[in-house]
Design goal:
Among the domains are: 133 residues, no CATH class; 102 residues. The relative contact order is 0.11. The strands form 13 sheets. Strands 2, 23, 24, 25 and 26 form a 5-stranded antiparallel β-sheet that branches. It has a 4-stranded antiparallel β-sheet with strand order 1-53-52-51, with no helix packed on it. A 4-stranded antiparallel β-sheet has the order 3-4-5-6, with no helix packed on it. Helices cover 3% and strands 50% of the residues. It is mainly beta and 612 residues long.
Amino acid sequence: MRPTQSSLAASVALAMAVCIAHAQYSFEDLGRPLEPKPLPIDVVTGSTETGFTAWGTMLSPDGKGLVGVNTATGEMTWVGMGEWDYGRINVTRAANGDLYLYTGDPGRFFRYRVAEGQLVDLGVPDEPASYTMGGAVGPDGRFYVGSYPQTRVVYVDPATDRIGSLGQMSEDLRCKYILQTAVSDDNIVYAAVGLHHAELWAVPVATGQKKQLLPQQVSSGCDRVTLLVGEDGRVYGKGAGKLFVCSAEGIKYVDAFPPERSMAQLRRAGDYYAETLTSAGQLVLKHAHTGATSTVDTEFEGVSVALYCASCEWNGKIYGGGFQPANIFCYDPVTGQSADLGRHNGGRIQIYEILGLPKGLFISSYVGCSLDFYNPETNERVHIGQLIKEYDQERGLQLILGPDEMLYLASRPSKGKLGGALTRINPEDYSYTCWRNVLPDQSIISVVSVPQTNEVFCTTSNYGGSGSVPTQKDGYILLWDCAVEKVNWAGTPIEGANSYGQAVMARTGLIYVHVREQYLAFDPVKREVVFTGDMPVQTVHHQGIADSPAGPEGLIFGIGDDAVFAIDPRDHGARVLAHHPSLADAKGLMATADGVLYYVNGSHLWRVDMYP
């Protein structure tokens, strides 16, 4: 029998009201625990007569837009672009002296008229087209950008402000990324596509006829090729251990590359090159002839680093990680002080999980599904491995201590691929074993230790790495036998669910699983679902459910919409406990044993005590 939200619903409010309702929760902004980072300079506009302005594109929790700095006075200009959705800004300087930009979702081109200080929306050239990895300028001045998710190459012509599209490159749905664009002096646009496998497309601007250039041995031998434009104006590539030169007809292998064409002229300001805006607010200039550097003071305060998770409590301090760069931070609740500990993990983009054991911290980070050990007190660090190299895993989602005192990691595969993995790591000697496809073409999303049966409970999704195409209809919940090293049991308890999310074991021994708009309670000993109910929020945020129950009632806390909610294992009920604006964009929730919640929002760490 599977009870649902029926007669139990009436008792939920009363039961939870007895323990913590009517409390006055105090939501605390604990500040920015990670140090701001510098801003690279992309282009310089102006002249000796009018003065020069150095420009960089900023994408941070504090805002999205153009940052301009007068190279003589340090006076700053801000051009906000946040209203066109989150996304990288690609920028170039045109022959007319103005800036041309591509950003947004759907991606659109803009012209920034420097003299007038006016941002002009030129429109959407093609869609769907959003996330971009960079652009290139052709000999006729056209600015080309490769976009996601349908590998469309779009462009703007600064001579006329006309926008357009060269259309979709790859027709393989598993390849959604244009990783690089380059244009040769004979006006052929090249688009390097990946990551399921490598493709290289050539489009002569004169004809618009596209062609895929890579032979099978290169295409299947790597997930991307890299491109450069040589000083001779030709486009060269590297992939699968081979070097080649490109033409509209195909590629020809070469022994070495010529010198790469320099783009430094875009940053030339008279006798200087504008290099970077430091986090301390200084514009760094490098003399074009002597190489000597000088600085100009500005009011720039650095680019705030986004936080990705608050993850664990270790030796009385809270630890979490950042996003670009994937630095580790710690917060001391006693002193109220935070510290940026730097990057001690192989993945440079973001930290997914930090698990604290007596000997130190175990870290899962992206890219490459990197596994690392770090002790902040002794500064000992061990790089355990990167699962992308041998097992094609890219994102290690959750890391736990299993019933056999081994660590277990749930992971998704690389972009365009299917087949996630369950990985066991020995915390003493750092050896590991990775089992990919414990169920065919399923990613492992969440893991829970089941000491009662010496098993690990897993949730799965039929979706793989970004851009992948599922082959299975359903997601699963399963039990992995730690001794026999195989799946003991698997089920699909909710019809039509292609993905099961975060899972937490309550103090009752039941495991609660978030499944889109629902949640369920599973008995791992009897191997049956004992309850299903509706979530009290519409959207649970990323890493939005605490890994462990907390407080005297053993509540399972979560964040969704603009609210904190809790599941009460005593009657399976769930309800919203409090609303706060900081929760609307929050993620990475963790709970201390006594019920203090930590989460991140933008560059800030937040806290709320659920038992004030």
